[in-house]
Amino acid sequence: MAEGVGRSLLYPQEVNSIFGVKGIAVTASYGKLAHDTAKIDPAECSAVANPESEQVWEAVDWEALSGLLLQSPEGDNSHFVLEAIFGLSSPAEAQKMMTKSAQEWKFCLGKPFSVTEEGKEPVRESMIDFNPSGDIMTALVTVEGTRYRCQLVRTRLSKYVVDAQACGFDITDQAEKVAELIVGRLKEKSGS
After folding, report:
1. Between the CA of residue 124 and those of 114, 121, 130, what are the distances in Å?
2. Closest by alpha carbon to 84, among 127, 38, 33, 132?
3. How many domains does the chain have?
4. Among 94, 113, 161, 166, whose Cα sits 20 to 30 Å from the Cα of 151?
């Protein structure tokens, strides 16, 4: 990945500011895709249930990945935030991923799906909103029977794909704000 691109990710204090809270901290950084062992039913909703998994990105020519997982302490107002930048081989390959993702996300709109981790009860989720618009798409996923929800955002700038996911009980547009700030930094670094 071009020098400094990974530094376009947001710092915890910036994420805390977006959420209007304190205590969200980096719990992991990563440079490779997750090997998802959870069973997703239907499997076609893997792109929504775990957007950074090997299964989702296996047919795409990506070259580099820089990501952070941030979380707040458990409790009534706990938050989970994922932010990632993928460097792809070309702008055309990045657009290919956006087109593929839009089709996969649209498939899951309005369809309940389950996520079953080994040794745990299935969690039923539903994508209740999907909005593709130009080089950005957003989705809202809820966990059935709770107020817990996640906003997913995937956007593109040149040969980069930016992912942001924000989960909690008070989610509105936080993932979109995270993604917008990352893209702004990428533009500064690339001079676009």
Report:
1. 4, 10, 18
2. 33
3. 1
4. 94
* CATH number, domain with residue 186: 3.40.1000.70
Per-residue pLDDT of the chain (192 residues; tens, 9 = 90+): 455 677 899 999 999 999 998 899 999 998 888 777 789 999 899 899 988 777 788 878 888 899 999 998 776 568 999 999 999 999 999 999 999 999 999 999 999 999 999 999 999 999 999 999 989 999 999 999 999 999 999 999 999 999 999 999 999 999 999 999 999 999 988 766
Q: What φ, ψ does residue 53 adopt, rounded to 5°? A: -90, 160
Q: Contact, 12 vs 22, CB < 8 A? A: no
Q: Which residues contact 184 (CB under 8 A, 6 or more apart)?
A: none
Task: Compute how many other C-beta atoms are within 10 angstroms of the C-beta atom of residue 81.
Answer: 27
Parent domain of 185: 5-190
Is the Cβ–Cβ distance between 166 and 81 less than 8 Å?
Answer: yes
CA atoms of 159 and 41, how far apart (whole Å): 31
pLDDT at position 2: 54
- Cα radius of gyration (the chain): 16
Please state, in angstroms and rounded to a whole number, the distance separating the CA atoms of residues 50 and 43.
11
DSSP class of 20 = T
